[in-house]
Prior knowledge:
By secondary structure, the protein is of the alpha/beta class. It has helices spanning about 5, 20-30, 35-55, 75-85, 105-110, 125-130, 155-170, 240-245, and strands spanning about 15, 65-70, 90-95, 115, 135-140, 180-185, 210-215, 215, 230-235.
Amino acid sequence: MHTADRHASPSPRDGYTAEQVRGAERPLLEAGEPLMQRAADALADEVSRLIAETHGPVHGERPLVVVLAGSGDNGGDALFAGAHLAARGAEVRIVAVGSRLHESGALAAHAAGARDLDPEAAPDAVDAAVRAADVIVDGILGIGAAASPALRGTAREVVARVRTVLGPEWVARAGSGTRHPLVVAVDLPSGISPDDGRVPDPTVLPADVTVTMGAVKAGLLFGPAVEVVGRVVLVDLGLGRALAGVQPVVTGGGRHDLP
């Protein structure tokens, strides 16, 4: 990426709609820019940093990362990040919550040593992994679910089970930096609207950190969603130039302590 593109990065205090972000991404994707790989690299770096902060020196124990992966690009980001984390020495367990896994992301994760857990065939194994995890990565739904963001089917069942297994006190301590495991949301917590912060169903995983890609989604900055997004980390994908003439939906950073 050229220096000029980096200089024109979007402000982390401005929030954009899903359609505005997709429009900014489109020319870069058409030009063959590896946006998913950039997103996955940054996501893996953030998870690694959190593990280092909370896990401390590792003496024979490998940190455990549980990836909740949907079938779309959000799941792909999470799976590629899982591949990076496995290559760095983490144990990575993949829980597929959609109709399929992102093919190339799953291939990369499996090649790096990640293993699958079936929430239907082996729910007890999923429960045990959730209890033992250092980080849970929420890669279920991204901005493609803007029209109807509520979780359904297996995804909703898995999230409800995670909340039950870890308990209401764990849910309530989201964002405090004191709970275990931590939750890292990919782009936005699954189940919230990226445009207006609606949370149509309370069955969501409140995040400690939301790693949002390209530009901050407006829904992270206002509405009920502000209670479940945690700390927001913006990954620069080079969208600043495309968004330079676009009016953000939210300005000023909402209620978050953004850098």
